[in-house]
Amino acid sequence: MTSSGRSNGTVEVFEQAAASYDRTGVSFFGPFGAELVRRAGIRPGERVLDVGCGRGAVLFPAADATGSTGHVTGIDLAPAMVALTAEDVTRAGLTHVDVRVGDAQQPDFPPGSFDVVLAGLVVFLLPDPRQALQTYARLLRPAGRLAISTFAAQDPAFVAAMDALAAHLPADRPRPAPAAAPFADDGAITATMAAVGLAVTAIREHRLESHFHNVDHWMEWMWSHGGRALLSHIPADRLDAATADAARALEPARLSGGGLTLTTAIRVTVATPYPAAAQPEPS
Ligand SMILES: C[S@@+](CC[C@H](N)C(=O)[O-])C[C@H]1O[C@@H](n2cnc3c(N)ncnc32)[C@H](O)[C@@H]1O
Questions:
Q1: From the CB of 125, is ligand 1 less than 6 Å away?
Q2: How many beta carbons lie within 10 A of that of residue 214, not counting itself?
Q3: What is the pLDDT of residues 86-101, one digit of tens each?
């Protein structure tokens, strides 16, 4: 197994989260994955690679879009994600889909293997996102498309709750980092893509409201995805106090019935390889 994701601990977090990832009854990864696939404009018969496929929020809509005349390959570096998603693929009888352990930093396929490469909420987790995008560009056929989603805006109540939790981390533990610079805004994304030979054809924001029964449900959801990276470093004897502080921070998101609603915005970027003759001059 390659080791890029292991070096920063990201993959261990998702390995431990795999069983509950996108399975806590919260509408989040599913709608975002479906929107990414919709924007990629996948046609029946196309060959698709889904990097960092997780539990299939992107993979399954992509398999619908290609139909059985096409093919979708999902890769993820967390073996538990791959095993559980492969079971779901088999259960759904999708013979045109395969899922395997593979590194999204450097997917190992021959050049020009795919019509579409999809990366749902993953590129900013990679050790070297620019190099990964360059590899994806090489994997595309000449008129192929790369479609990625990245976070655009978090609910202020979510940000406040994350800060409240982070205040309970040991002093030597780094605080969660803000959005990765190559994806900070439309301009940065366009420049990042251009630097690796990809022309952006569209960047669209997509907002989603997610509902939680209460703060315990929100915490259950936080343990089920990348939020686990923060929670798992809070000492066990501080978790109750951390949860109480997060609950106070989430008050602005509380509904009259006691539930919580948080709004998240992602950017979906679609890009296509520059024809060799139209490559921009390196700056
Ligand atoms: C936030 S989840 C997104 C999963 C899925 N695309 C979705 O939209 O629900 C990120 C996924 O990327 C995987 N991942 C992180 N680093 C990776 C790497 N270097 N190679 C492959 N997968 C990686 C994680 O294991 C996790 O399944």
A1: yes
A2: 14
A3: 999 999 999 999 999 9
First to last CA, the chain: 36
Name 185's Cβ contacts closer than 8 Å, sequence gap at least 6. none
Asked if residue 136 lies in contact with residue 106, where contact means CB atoms within 8 angstroms, the answer is no
Element (H, E) at 156: helix 156-166
Alpha-carbon gap, residue 182 to 186, rounded angstroms: 10
Contacts of 207 (CB under 8 A, 6+ apart): 263, 264, 265
Rounded to an integer, the average pLDDT of 268-273 is 97
Q: How far apart are alpha carbons 198 and 129 in whole angstroms? A: 14
- Kindly state if the Cβ of 82 falls inside 6 Å of ligand 1: no
Choose among 36, 39, 272, 42: nearest CA to 137: 272
Sequence-distant (≥ 6) Cβ neighbours of residue 52 within 8 angstroms: 75, 76, 77, 104, 119, 120, 121, 122, 125
Q: Which parts of 156-238 fold into alpha helices (H)?
A: 156-166, 186-195, 215-223, 228-231
* pLDDT tens-digit readout, 148-167: 999 999 999 999 999 999 99
Q: Which two tokens stand for residue 159?
A: 């940000």
Q: Of all atoms in ligand 1, which is nearest to the CA of residue 226?
A: 1
Cβ(74) to ligand 1 under 6 A? no
| Range 24-32 average pLDDT | 98
Residue 266 in contact with ligand 1 by CB distance below 6 A: no
State which CATH number among 1.20.1290.10, 3.40.50.150, 3.30.420.10, 1.10.645.10 fits the domain covering 4-154+177-211+263-276.
3.40.50.150
SS3 179: coil
Residues 6+ apart with CB under 8 A from 172: none
Q: What is the chain's Cα-based Rg?
A: 19
